[in-house]
Amino acid sequence: EAGAQWKDRMGKNIATIFSTRASDIMNLVYGSSGANASDESDSESDSEDGDDLDFFKPVGAQGTLSTLYESDDCSKYRVKLDEDAWREDGDFESIRNRFVTGDWEAGNERGELRPQDDSGSDSELYGDFEDLESGEKFGGENEDKEESELAIRKAAKKATFDEDYDASGPTTDGEAAVPEEKEDPTSYFDMIKQDMNEKYSRARAELDAMDPQMRVTMEGYRPGSYVRLRFSGMPYELVKNFDPTSPLVVGGLLNNEHAVGLMRFRLKRHRWHKKILKNKDPLIFSMGWRRFQSIPVYNLQDVGGRYRMIKYTPEHMHCLATVYGPLAPLNTGLVAFQTLDASKATWRISATGTVLDFDHSSKIMKKLKIVGTPLKINRNTAFIEGMFNSDLEVAKFEGAGIKTVSGIRGTIKKACKVPGKKGVARCTFEDKILYKDIVFTRSWVQVEVPRFYNQIGEKLLTAPSSLSAAANAAKEENKFIPCKAFEGGRESYVFKTGDLGLGYYLDGSHTGEGGTSDDASVPIMKTVAQLRREENLGAPVNRDSLYTPIERVKRVFNPLQVPAKLQAALPYSSKPKLEKKRKRKTLEARRAVVPSASEKKAYTLMQQLQTIRNDKAAKKRAKRAEALERAAKRKPKEEAWREELKKAERKRRYTLQGQAAKREQRKLNR
After folding, report:
1. Would you call 439 exposed, middle or buried from its count of C-beta atoms within 10 A (0-12, 13-18, 19+)?
2. Which positions ≥6 away from 445 have C-beta within 8 Å?
3. Among 66, 72, 85, which residue's Cα sits nearest to residue 16?
4. Minimal CA–CA distance to 178: which of 187, 170, 189?
5. Euclidean distance between CA atoms 419 and 413, whole angstroms
6. pLDDT of 196-240, one tens digit each?
7. 502 DSSP β-pair partners
8. Do 372 and 384 touch, CB atoms closer than 8 A?
9. Cα–Cα distance for residue pair 422/433, rounded to 1 Å
10. Judging by beta carbons within 10 Å of its beta carbon (0-12, 13-18, 19+), is residue 384 exposed, middle or buried?
């Protein structure tokens, strides 16, 4: 009996100690602050129960949260033994013989007195076994019927469970759920997708079975949870100028997103933006967690793979834009706009696009037309000046093709030395050129992308004043007079829609639509157009680029003069056939012709025949005109008759088509 008592107590102690350890192996490996905290709370509660003078006791989790961060390593479980349970005199003596130093004779005597099995079979000792070489299985001689029946019942219950939960999930009304037939994956993609869904379901089931603290450790905080964040190294201006009415969006950046470099976008002007975008005009890009201002260089890719710069964005198609700024992941969407003040009536999204790649080795080229004039001409060879600045530049362009405005082609040969001048090139042409010809060559030059970007951080700056305050200040200074409709002209005022609304603005004090810059506290770069409007400056004019009427003097060529001796030696085919224009009539034209009597009769006869012929032709023309007039009178009647005939024919055709359609409809209804 003593042995049975200490066995029972030991079994209870072991079950109490290792119950939490065996419940969740994950807590043992990764740690769980809940176990130690619960043990400490139990010990504290026991001590507090014995002390009635302690009035302040922790309530619920308030007493454990303060000690979670200072608790022991929970992966090393602390076994606490109840020492009071072993203070009885008979306890130590009852287990003394269970150790090596004890007396084992009493145990051997108890073993001999234990009743033995009369069956004498070794089936329970050895059980079932399998021959590993041949693969043949051997069973025991006497199988237990109860175990087989139990196995059959377990298999039936498992099949019922799988049918209810695996196929269609548990039902709420207690009825058996109808199993859904799982479709076999038809492709490798479907198989991978099905495998991913199964893994996700198993992971979700494992997470749902965990305690909340362990789930937070494994999965993190779920969406919708309230968390407290602590930041280090925040700028002082963010706290000073913090606006509680404006929420802050917190995000994170990857390690590769902290770098700065060149990015290539696929960009398109937004359809709401009124004008096309100009090259190298600053834009504010918003992509991912970043918002910065940079200078884009627009370009297109030629068939040969060369990136050619364009001055403006295309009207209805995409283009490429190379921008210097903080790198973003590929295929990141972006939005670009020119100003930050969205309260303007003219504010629009300028462009949209995506990030294509980070290519720092690609070169953007633009066309360059180099122009020069002839310095000296010697038959088909000419010296060209003004095209290059040094002999080194001429050496780089040796063999390049050139052309004159008149269309004569040529080639650059070599640099030549001319006293007092540099960059003179000797060129050959397919024909002799003139001194007034302009010679040019087409080439390509690399365009450097401006290495500039401005990080937009308006949250670090003072909040801008409201429009109402600005309007009141403008009213006090008589710079703005609000008005809903035009009430006639006012001296020194302009009626328009500006930043403060519709009304009269003092001329020169406000730039109106699109002319004002953003808030002064936000340092952003302005476009050239905005600077010109603010300074009242016009676009620079190049007089050579203006369209002016061209007056070309007609060239007069001297007549060809061939010496008389040369004409005599030339064959007849090569002699000049052009005769000089006579100032006086020839003798044949000036002499009088007196016809004879026979010639007079013949002339009279010809006149008579011509008169008869003309009379017959006149009669034929008159008859033809009468016939055309009669035909013109008959034509309206024939057209009306033909129109009636076509109308009747169409009516008959439409009637037949309608009857056929009705018959088809009746067949379909049957």
Report:
1. buried
2. 365, 366, 368
3. 85
4. 170
5. 19
6. 999 988 888 888 888 888 888 888 888 888 888 888 888 888 888
7. 497
8. yes
9. 22
10. buried
**Strand, helix or coil at 428?**
strand
DSSP letter (8 states) at residue 653: H
3-state DSSP of 235-298: CHHHHHCCCCCCCCCCCCCCHHHHCEEEEEEEEEECCCCCCCCECCCCEEEEECCEEEEECCEE
Contact in structure between 2 and 94 (CB atoms under 8 Å): yes
* Strands 381-385, 364-378: pairing kind: antiparallel
| Cα atoms in the Cβ-side hemisphere of radius 13 Å centred on 339 | 20
Tokens read off for 446: 């690399």
Residue 509 amino acid letter: S
How much of the chain is in helix, strand and coil states, percent to nearest 5? 40, 20, 45
* Single-letter residue type at 104: W
Say which DSSP state 102 is in. Answer: S
For position 100, what pLDDT does the model report?
A: 66
Per-residue pLDDT of 73-117, as tens digits, reads: 555 555 565 666 566 666 667 677 767 666 777 667 666 655 554
Listed in sequence order, the residues at least 6 apart from 433 whose beta carbon sits closer than 8 Å to its beta carbon are 374, 377, 382, 404, 406, 408, 410, 439
Nearest one of 434, 432, 383, 436 to 412, comparing CA atoms: 383
| Core vs surface per residue 559-573: b (16+ CB within 10 A) or e | eeeeeeeeeeeeeee
3-state secondary structure of 125: helix
Kindly give the parts of the chain with pLDDT less than 50.
20-23, 33-38, 40-41, 43-55, 59-70, 117-126, 141-142, 167-179, 465-468, 476, 509-520
Q: How many residues does the chain have?
A: 670
Name the amino acid, one letter, at 548. Answer: T
Helix (H, G, I), strand (E, B) or coil at 609: helix
Q: Which of 474, 26, 442 is nearest to 217 (CA)?
A: 26
Any idea which residue has 């055709």 for tokens? 653
Angle between helices 188-209 and 212-219 (to 10 degrees): 140
d(CA 359, CA 600) in angstroms, rounded, equals 102
- The secondary structure of 627-642, three-state, reads HHHHHHHHHHHHHHHH
Helices (H) and strands (E) in the chain, counts: 17, 20
DSSP 421: B
CA angle at residue 646 from 642 to 650, to 5 degrees? 175
d(CA 191, CA 183): 10
Residues 343, 127: Cα–Cα separation, whole Å: 87
Q: Are strands 364-378 and 307-309 parallel, antiparallel or unpaired?
A: parallel
Q: What is the pTM of this model?
A: 0.47
Cα of 129 vs its chain's centroid, Å:
66
Residue in this structure with the two tokens 């490429």, named with its chain if needed: 320
Residue that is written with structure tokens 């130690």 in the block? 36
pLDDT in the model for residue 372: 94
| Distance of alpha carbon 307 from alpha carbon 320, whole angstroms | 9
State in Å, rounded, how far the first CA of the chain is from the last one. 95
Q: What distance in Å separates the CA atoms of residue 310 and residue 366, rounded to the nearest whole number? A: 8
For the four alpha carbons of 112, 118, 124 and 129, in that order, the dihedral sign comes to positive
